[in-house]
């Protein structure tokens, strides 16, 4: 069994990851790690994640206290906790799956650099279907990217803190690199005023409303026709299942910087 720690177990992703890992035949939970000062620190992980049963596993507020006993860490917490988790994972040579978003490009680079010493997988989206969509985006961009107008529309719930979403940014980066460019040189975020669309740009539009879990559509607009590639989720289960699949894969790897595409062999 792969001994697993979940960082951020009270969040919407952390709860689902804990529930799926608790029933896994390959993962065994050894601890949950929450932010310091929360009222659930010291309680049973099953109770904190509303699992319906106790697991006999504590939620602590200090990863350093429990990290030595684990094989892999799954972190869907906050930007600040994610960076601390990365530091400790490198220090203790533990595999890390991180799905936290909101990092700057420089901070994201730290995760890939960690692959020099630990098995590392950073992904803004661990859904199997989203990563299949990414493969389709590569194919579409290679075929028609230079002759169409590309727009990305993403929807999330009212509580999401970053915009555009990390998934939408990854999609844009993938498209830009397929075109031989950097996203920072092509991205346009929203529009107002007058003037024609900038040729070759990638447009971004972020919608925040209600409890919409996650929705991404990429438009390839031509003259007289358009192609739309979309992914819509009705809940977070697919993302949590994907994160657990990533942890199972990563625990068996040598140090390196891996992706969900490596897990799925895309």
UniProtKB/TrEMBL annotation:
<keyword id="KW-0220">Diaminopimelate biosynthesis</keyword>
<comment type="function">
    <text>Catalyzes the conversion of 4-hydroxy-tetrahydrodipicolinate (HTPA) to tetrahydrodipicolinate.</text>
</comment>
<protein>
    <recommendedName>
        <fullName>4-hydroxy-tetrahydrodipicolinate reductase</fullName>
        <ecNumber>1.17.1.8</ecNumber>
    </recommendedName>
</protein>
<feature type="domain" description="Dihydrodipicolinate reductase N-terminal">
    <location>
        <begin position="2"/>
        <end position="125"/>
    </location>
</feature>
<dbReference type="InterPro" id="IPR023940">
    <property type="entry name" value="DHDPR_bac"/>
</dbReference>
<feature type="active site" description="Proton donor">
    <location>
        <position position="160"/>
    </location>
</feature>
<feature type="binding site">
    <location>
        <begin position="8"/>
        <end position="13"/>
    </location>
    <ligand>
        <name>NAD(+)</name>
    </ligand>
</feature>
<dbReference type="GO" id="GO:0008839">
    <property type="term" value="F:4-hydroxy-tetrahydrodipicolinate reductase"/>
</dbReference>
<feature type="domain" description="Dihydrodipicolinate reductase C-terminal">
    <location>
        <begin position="130"/>
        <end position="264"/>
    </location>
</feature>
<feature type="binding site">
    <location>
        <begin position="99"/>
        <end position="101"/>
    </location>
    <ligand>
        <name>NAD(+)</name>
    </ligand>
</feature>
<dbReference type="Pfam" id="PF01113">
    <property type="entry name" value="DapB_N"/>
</dbReference>
<dbReference type="InterPro" id="IPR022664">
    <property type="entry name" value="DapB_N_CS"/>
</dbReference>
<feature type="active site" description="Proton donor/acceptor">
    <location>
        <position position="156"/>
    </location>
</feature>
<feature type="binding site">
    <location>
        <begin position="123"/>
        <end position="126"/>
    </location>
    <ligand>
        <name>NAD(+)</name>
    </ligand>
</feature>
<dbReference type="InterPro" id="IPR022663">
    <property type="entry name" value="DapB_C"/>
</dbReference>
<comment type="subunit">
    <text>Homotetramer.</text>
</comment>
<keyword id="KW-0963">Cytoplasm</keyword>
<dbReference type="InterPro" id="IPR000846">
    <property type="entry name" value="DapB_N"/>
</dbReference>
<keyword id="KW-0028">Amino-acid biosynthesis</keyword>
<keyword id="KW-0560">Oxidoreductase</keyword>
<dbReference type="InterPro" id="IPR036291">
    <property type="entry name" value="NAD(P)-bd_dom_sf"/>
</dbReference>
<feature type="binding site">
    <location>
        <begin position="166"/>
        <end position="167"/>
    </location>
    <ligand>
        <name>(S)-2,3,4,5-tetrahydrodipicolinate</name>
    </ligand>
</feature>
<keyword id="KW-0520">NAD</keyword>
<comment type="pathway">
    <text>Amino-acid biosynthesis; L-lysine biosynthesis via DAP pathway; (S)-tetrahydrodipicolinate from L-aspartate: step 4/4.</text>
</comment>
<dbReference type="Pfam" id="PF05173">
    <property type="entry name" value="DapB_C"/>
</dbReference>
<keyword id="KW-0521">NADP</keyword>
<comment type="similarity">
    <text>Belongs to the DapB family.</text>
</comment>
<keyword id="KW-0457">Lysine biosynthesis</keyword>
């Amino acid at each position: 069994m792969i001994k697993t720690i979940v960082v951020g177990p009270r969040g919407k992703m952390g709860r689902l990851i804990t529930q799926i890992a608790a029933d896994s035949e390959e993962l065994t939970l050894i601890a949950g790690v929450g932010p310091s000062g929360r009222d659930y620190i010291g309680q049973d992980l099953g109770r904190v994640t509303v699992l319906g049963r106790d697991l006999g596993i504590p939620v602590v507020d200090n990863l350093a206290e429990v990290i030595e006993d684990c094989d892999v860490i799954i972190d869907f917490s906050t930007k600040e906790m994610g960076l601390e988790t990365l530091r400790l994972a490198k220090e203790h040579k533990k595999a890390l799956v991180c799905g936290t978003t909101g990092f700057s490009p420089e901070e994201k680079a730290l995760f890939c650099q960690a692959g020099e010493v630990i098995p590392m997988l950073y992904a803004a989206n661990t859904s199997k279907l989203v990563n299949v969509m990414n493969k389709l985006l590569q194919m579409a961009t290679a075929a028609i990217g230079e002759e169409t107008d590309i727009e990305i529309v993403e929807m999330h719930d009212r509580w999401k803190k970053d915009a555009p979403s990390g998934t939408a940014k990854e999609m844009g980066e993938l498209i830009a690199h397929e075109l031989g460019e950097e996203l920072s040189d092509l991205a346009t975020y929203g529009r107002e005023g007058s003037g024609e669309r900038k040729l070759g740009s990638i447009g971004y539009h972020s919608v925040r409303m209600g409890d919409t879990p996650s929705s991404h559509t990429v438009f390839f607009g031509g003259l007289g026709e358009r192609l739309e590639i979309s992914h819509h989720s009705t809940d977070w289960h697919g993302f949590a299942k994907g994160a657990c699949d990533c942890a199972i894969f990563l625990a068996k790897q040598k140090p390196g910087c891996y992706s969900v595409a490596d897990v799925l062999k895309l």
